[in-house]
Amino acid sequence: MVSHGSLERLRTANRRALVSLLGAEGPMSRADLARGTGLSRTTVSTLIGELIASGHVTETTVRGRPHKGGSGRPPLLVALATPPGVVAGIDVGHRHVRVALSDRSAAVLAEQVESVDVDADGGAALDRVAEIVTTLLATSGFGREELHAIGMCVPAPLDRRSARVGTGILPGWRDLPPAEELRRRLDVRVVVVDNDANLGALAEHSRGAAKGVADIIYVKIASGVGAGIVLGGRLHRGATGIAGELGHVQVDEDGQVCRCGNRGCLETLVAAPRLLELLQPAYDEPLTEERVLALDAEGDAGVRRVLGDAGRAVGRALADLCNSLNPERIVLGGSLGTSGSLGEGVRTSLTRFAQPDTAAALQVVPGRLGDRAEVLGALALAISRSATL
Amino acid sequence: MVSHGSLERLRTANRRALVSLLGAEGPMSRADLARGTGLSRTTVSTLIGELIASGHVTETTVRGRPHKGGSGRPPLLVALATPPGVVAGIDVGHRHVRVALSDRSAAVLAEQVESVDVDADGGAALDRVAEIVTTLLATSGFGREELHAIGMCVPAPLDRRSARVGTGILPGWRDLPPAEELRRRLDVRVVVVDNDANLGALAEHSRGAAKGVADIIYVKIASGVGAGIVLGGRLHRGATGIAGELGHVQVDEDGQVCRCGNRGCLETLVAAPRLLELLQPAYDEPLTEERVLALDAEGDAGVRRVLGDAGRAVGRALADLCNSLNPERIVLGGSLGTSGSLGEGVRTSLTRFAQPDTAAALQVVPGRLGDRAEVLGALALAISRSATL
DNA sequence: GGGGATTCGTCCGTCAACCGAACTAAATGG
DNA sequence: CCATTTAGTTCGGTTGACGGACGAATCCCC
């Protein structure tokens, strides 16, 4: 076997193009693949033949429809084969962990959410995560050797170089490299860790409310406030991987001291616990985030006011960012992202504080994946990193 | 790397790789090109042969040094040929225009700066620009048919879709598509227009103070305040092309009304005319930007205070942006970018208001191209758009 | 029911692009 | 003066993609 560098690379590039097109568009015929990639039908046929032989692609038994309802021989559809085995996605919040197990076509097989005091002790949280993964594997009937990759997010910036949580944000995780810790506990080769808002952005961008939109800002409003920024269709992580710290924009010079050390950070005003605390005295029942969302939908004046204020504060910070980035869409995620009043507040501030042209080019929409955006992003990341092509 | 497609496309991709390597590294031998691209010496030889035949590359007469001072046949160096003809770069400011003529290897042949009240009447300014270009062509001995492309920047956001200046920013340019207007006046096919800060960023990134740095923010502080944002090595223009409006971040809720319609924009505090106005009463001599920079270098207390305040205001706005983008370097440009006090002010605010990790990963440096950054970026853009490969 | 028309997938011959080996060219050094 | 080293070229061979031709499978229309 002679290594013919460039030609061989060309062939693998073409193979990759086919796989990525199949991934984006779903099952399709060889002729459609040829049209989609610009390759000839001949070439597509031989490449698909190789991909079938290597197990990356399967020829489906169902025949497709003839071309555009007209006549002609119906095509044989080919589809990406789901590789054997499973991956795990883990969403670590401040007060919960959510673990999902999926096959390698992103179909979720099992999922579990649990309240855990993550902030206090990172090691203990990771212990619990490892237990849940093990349980889910067992109840789904998979052996540990069938777990190919793990994607995880943590609610804190992650320094790319040290693979650690940034200073000050999550004290219980100091000097705890999450990927390595999890790899040690579960003996899985591929463990990828990223920031929660980043993975939420990835999920909403690839299959949620911002599908096909090149420049988006995903804002996660939950226990904290964070942003995942997709520019030119690619997640922007920054020089050291800690981009997206929208929650620590200063909005009040004399405001509360934030866990990051500054004063009056956006996060001190609009984080979910803070809002509940603010509302609770006026209500007889114990308030939860779900209950607040329900009251908001019912039109409760107090809730609307508080969530509207929060939205306006977020929108104020977003306006500055949008002036600089001119994104096409803002996706509001996190437990409070679907609140109508909050969304209205964001829109109000953007209209008021952003440049008119910038605001006009901008859509503000709630996320479509809800609480599960982060874990779905983690699964997607795990699958992409476990790909063998 | 290798784009999918036919064999022919593979060849052109390889040709492009050779040209881009030659562009980046300067003259080199075929053997070095083979090592640099991973192609075989055979392939490089034939490709270079084609490029020589087509006039894109020349074989220099000087022989290179034998490899690493050792023995061996000395290589024949090949270099990018400078295509015939010239290009023009035009920097349109609020109160001046700067026009440069260069050959197509970016060597400036002639340059002229002139005070023009650009804001008042866009058409008149473009008339004058066309005159200057014509004059420079004549005095340099080139005919108009030898002018291959024009790059121009204007001090306002440019909507990509309408190719017009954004609403409100530059009233005298409303409904005046700059590229088309200039094309009409000078009968040049290739006319590219972009925002001033964008082209400054391009220049400082490709050949100035941020060479080789992937994520930078170029801040231009002159008659206005604007930013050019390079992320992942590529200029970010945003969904409609109007990214970078850092000057219209609101820094004072009750501040002066800005030309953009909002109140208390950064630009109302730190634009150069505003600072001169602020300083003038305390000085007997008439102040210019150059004089203020000189006073700053001499340690004049008043100037240092005012420029320091301006820098802190800019840094305050940059801190929020850096929290979200985590860039590696900030380049301060524009007429006041080289001021030491201003730079110190920016650093002070960044340290205070940005996340500690973000600030630690960040360098703040003055631009290396000074007033000429924009026009050099315009030339570079014109050259790249006039390339025939 | 049968004969185009149309589209799909494959086979085959051809051409394009790259590579390795061998060869010549031009220097250095003992 | 000859061995050594590196550069560039020539030549034969392999790989990859393509276009045209062909059978297959369906629809449409008579």
Polypeptide structure, described:
2 copies of one chain form a homodimer. Chain A contains 13 helices and 15 strands. Chain A has about 400 residues and is an alpha/beta fold. Chain A folds into 3 domains: about 80 residues, Arc Repressor Mutant, subunit A; about 130 residues, Nucleotidyltransferase, domain 5 (2-Layer Sandwich); about 160 residues, 2-Layer Sandwich (Nucleotidyltransferase, domain 5), CATH 3.30.420.40. In chain A, the strands form 4 sheets. A 5-stranded mixed sheet of chain A has the order 6-5-4-7-10. Chain A has a 5-stranded mixed sheet with strand order 13-12-11-14-15, with helices on both faces. In chain A, a hairpin with a 4-residue loop joins strand 8 and strand 9. Chain A starts with a helix and ends with a helix. The interface between A and B is large, with 59 and 59 residues. Chain A binds a DNA duplex (30 and 30 nucleotides) through helix 1 and helix 3.
Concise structural overview:
Two copies of one chain form a homodimer. With 389 residues, chain A is of the alpha/beta class. Chain A has 13 helices and 15 strands.
CATH topology of the largest domain in chain A: Nucleotidyltransferase, domain 5
Assembly type? homodimer
Query: How big is the Rg of chain A?
Result: 23 Å
Largest pleated sheet of chain A:
5 strands, mixed
Proportion in helices of chain A: 40-55%
Give the overall silhouette of chain A.
globular
Please indicate the percent range of residues of chain A in DSSP E strands (runs of 2 or more).
Answer: 15-25%
Order of helices and strands of chain A: HEHHEEEEEHEEEHEHEEEHHHHEHHEH
Strand order in space, largest sheet of chain A: 6-5-4-7-10
Q: What is the mean pLDDT of chain A?
A: 92
Which architecture of the largest domain in chain A would the CATH scheme give at its second level?
2-Layer Sandwich
CATH class of the largest domain in chain A: Alpha Beta
Question: Total number of β-strand segments of chain A?
Answer: 15
Largest interface: A-B, 59 and 59 residues
CATH homologous superfamily title of the largest domain in chain A: ATPase, nucleotide binding domain
